Every structure is written in structure tokens, then in C-alpha cells.
Amino acid sequence: MPRRRKRDLIIKGFSKLLKEDKLKIVAQLMDKQVESIELMKSFWHTDHKVQKIFDEFSENTISNFYIPYGVAPNVVINGKAHLVPLVIEESSVVAAASSSAKFWSEHGGFHSEVVDVVKIGQVHFIWKGDKEKLLSVFDELTAAFRRATAHITENMEKRGGGILDFELVDMTDKIEDYYQIKVSFNTVDSMGANFINSCLEEFAGELKSFFRNHHVFKGKEKDCLVVMSILSNYTPDCVVRTWVECSVEELNGIDNDLSGEEFAEKFRMAVKIAEVDEYRATTHNKGIFNGIDAVAIATGNDFRAIEAAGHTYASRTGKYKSLSTAEIHDGRFKFSLELPLAIGTVGGLTNLHPLAKKSLEMLGNPSAKKLMMIASAVGLANNFAAVKSLVTKGIQIGHMKMHLFNILNHLQASDEEKKRAEEYFLGHKISFANVNDYISKLRKP
Ligand code: MEV
Questions:
Q1: From 90, 271, 284, 337, mutation site for ligand 1 pocket: most ligand atoms within 8 A of C-beta
Q2: Which pLDDT does position 7 carry in this prediction?
Q3: How many domains does the chain have?
């Protein structure tokens, strides 16, 4: 088949084509089309039923994209040990989480508490009239909201959740005539996005009908407009707090060149820098999300939502800052992380993705609150490992070993070649050219 040219790339009705035909079109953009199709197909699941599940998660699927599924052992949280599943492509994240978890398992483990689990949804609307009129019907309106969503909230209420509260928010100082109805929810063990959005769309319908039919708004139909209704991914009241602590003395031996006290001071300074400088804070927080996202993906949770909330929370004082803090008081070192984590252990992908289900089983089928503690402990573990490396030997040593293996795999090195390369590159600079050179020499007869 000829290579597809850029101007032929507008394809009408692509979604209606068979998967095989979509694949053929896509392969026209690749080198070696026949081999490309074979390669993409080799990642299809051999069990058609399983493949169908994956195809139905999304749209226009042509293959599956594998990401390594690793495990961090020895994650002790509030006295209980866990094996935590981590799905991540970045080399060294699992190793970093594991070594940190092991260190802290010998120094009291992670301590964690869920502060609260409130989630937020908003109906955004315009009202050009008197605010008092809105206030005069607000109780009537929210009662109508509750009636209209009784069929949706019944099950959630049985599980201990549901709608918590309604608030009329006057935003007219920001945008003329703009108001919100801000609704708080408890979605118990589910992430709750579908539940919240379903409720909000009912509320929006009720609000429109109030504007049309309620005597207070008679003749004012043109003065009101429901703009949209949607959950907020910012959940500053769905927060978990996790920390590790030990005496400064216990940190003796953590590094060959620094005493426990020197290490603690340098570590505290590194975290302080991430509190005052947003360039460093962004990377510092990225290190936290290395662990949290990996747990989120392994358990079928929405890591984009988690990150969005985390970064907004990091800016809640008006300045973007590190999500973790370090302190030394009376000879004790304490390293803490506080962040919003709107995650679930029922519903959505958590039950549909066969591996997400297994991840949750591995964790003992935790409640959402428990999973908040687990994910944040792994985030703190990764953050600790990263900052520890940065203030001691640097991160490149650990990264380079993984980098070496990536290059060796790319060069299809045998186990024997990998073993010899690992020894050789302990004392030599790792780069693609150097590794390629070394392997080529090894392979010369
Ligand atoms: C790399 O994925 C993450 C780090 O850059 C985090 C940090 O610098 O704190 C190591």
C-alpha cells in the first residue's frame, strides 16, 4: 500500500469502520505497513472477551498500549504492611518507592489519616434580576433538587453517602450576573464523577423549570440562563494527611558522607526550597505524583483528576508550593504530605479493568479512605527517595542503571551480555553510543 499523504488525512466516518480497517489506515502512516499491522495486532489480547472490554473503554481502539505493572513491598501504613501495585513506565519509580518503604518500615512506618471526603459539583447560571429573589426561593429550589434526584441518591444514601449541602454563591463581582449553586457530596467508596454529574444535570433541569414556571420569575425568562453543570475536580475537602517521623539519630548511616543530623538539615532545606520556588516545587510535586499516579492507574482511578486537584491545592495560598513539608523539632525529623485525593474503590474502571480488580484484591479490597492513605504513602515514599537522592548521591546513578537496561533491551542484549554490561558500566559513562559500542565489541567473534 502507498504511504498516506498528509492531505489525505481527513477521514470521514472513521469511527464506523471495522477495527481491522482502521488499523490499515493508520499503518499507512507507518514504516513497513504489513509488519506494523502485525505488531499492533500482536498486542491484542488473545481472549476476545477481554479484548472487547478494552475496546469498549474507549473509541477507535486499534491496539493496547502496555505499561509495566510493578509492586512495592513493605509499605507499612498505621502498623499494617501492604504490597502496593504500581503501573508506570518510568524506570526507577518502583525501585525508589520500595527502598523508601523498606527504610520507613524499619522506622515506624507511614502514619496516615483522612481529613475529610467531601466532593463538589456546581451549577453555573446567569440571573439578571434581584439576588433577594434567588434567596427567597432557594430552600424551595433545593427541596425540588432533592426530590428530582431521589432515584439517583437512594442507593448512595444506603451506603452512607449522598448530597450533603447546597450553597448559593454570588460571583457577580467577577462576572456580571453570574451565580453558582455549589453542591457538596459524599460518594463513599466511589470516585463519584458519574453520580455527581447525574445529580447536577437534574439540578440544572429543575433550575430551568423554576425559571420558566415559578411565579417569582414570571416574565423574567430572558433574564436567566443555566450555563453548565459539572463536578469540580478541585476537592480541597477530600484530603489525606500522611507522614513519617524518626529521631535524627536514626538517620545516621542513611548516607556514607553525611551524619543523620547533616542529612536531616539538608533534606529540610531541599523541601524548603520547594516551598519558596515554583520551578523546584513543580519537579518536587512531580516526584510525589510519580507514586500516586502509579497507584491510581493500577487501581483504575483517574490520575488526571488527581493531578489537577493536587496542583490547585499546591497553589491554595496564592503561590504554587511543595505539597510536602519537612521539619526537625527536639531531635525528631518529620516529613509530611497533605493533598486532596478523590479516588474510588468501587464503580468505574475499578471493577471493569481485570487488572484494576486484581490490584484492589492485592490491597485487601480497601475502602476509598484506605486507598487514599495507601496512594499518599507511596507518593510520600517516592518524594522521600527523590529528595534523599538529590541531597546525597544525585538521581542519575539510580536512573542510569535503568537507562542502561532500556538501552540493552533496545539492542536485544542476551542475559549474559546484560550481566557483563552491568559490570562494565559501573565504571563507565552510560550513553546509547557507549553501550552500543560495548555490545558490538562483545558480539564481534
Ligand atoms: C523524576 O521523575 C522525579 C524527580 O525529578 C523528583 C524530584 O526532583 O524531586 C527525581
A1: 284
A2: 58
A3: 4
**Dist. CA 90 → ligand 1 center (Å):** 11
Residues 217 and 205 in one domain: yes
Cα–ligand 1 centroid distance for 395 (angstroms)? 8
CA distance 274 to 278: 7
Same domain for 240 and 220: no
Catalytic residues: 90, 286, 302, 399
State how far the Cα of 149 lies from the Cα of 280, in Å rounded to an integer.
Answer: 45
- Give me the average pLDDT of each 10-residue run along the chain (445 residues): 67 94 94 96 96 95 97 98 97 94 98 98 96 95 97 96 98 98 98 96 95 90 93 98 98 96 98 98 98 98 98 98 98 98 94 95 98 98 97 83 88 94 90 95 90
Last residue in a domain, options 66, 82, 100: 66
Residues with CB under 6 A from ligand 1: 90, 283-284, 286-287, 290, 386-387, 390, 395
Q: Are residues 377 and 243 in the same domain?
A: yes
Q: How far is the centre of ligand 1, averaged over its atoms, from the C-alpha of 232 (Å)?
A: 28
pLDDT in tens, 85-119: 999 999 889 999 999 999 999 999 999 999 999 99
DSSP state of 14: G
Rg of the chain over all Cα atoms, to the nearest angstrom: 27
Q: Specify the amino acid at residue 186.
A: N
Q: Are 327 and 289 in a shared domain?
A: yes
Q: Is 60 exposed, middle or buried (0-12, 13-18, 19+ CB in 10 A)?
A: exposed
Kindly state the cell numbers that stand for 86. Answer: 504500581
Which residue has its alpha carbon closest to ligand 1 atom 3?
287
Same domain, yes or no: 150 and 226 = yes
Three-state SS at 49: helix
Residue located nearest, by CA, to atom 2 of ligand 1: 287
Domain with 308 in it: 69-116+236-393
Q: Domain boundary residue among 232, 251, 278? A: 232
Considering the domain architecture, whether residues 256 and 378 belong to the same structural domain is answered as yes
pTM, whole model, 2 decimals? 0.91
User: What's the CA gap between 208 and 203, in Å, rounded?
Assistant: 9
Residues 206 and 348 in one domain: no
CA of 42 to the centre of ligand 1 (A): 34
Is residue 110 located within the same domain as residue 255? Answer: yes
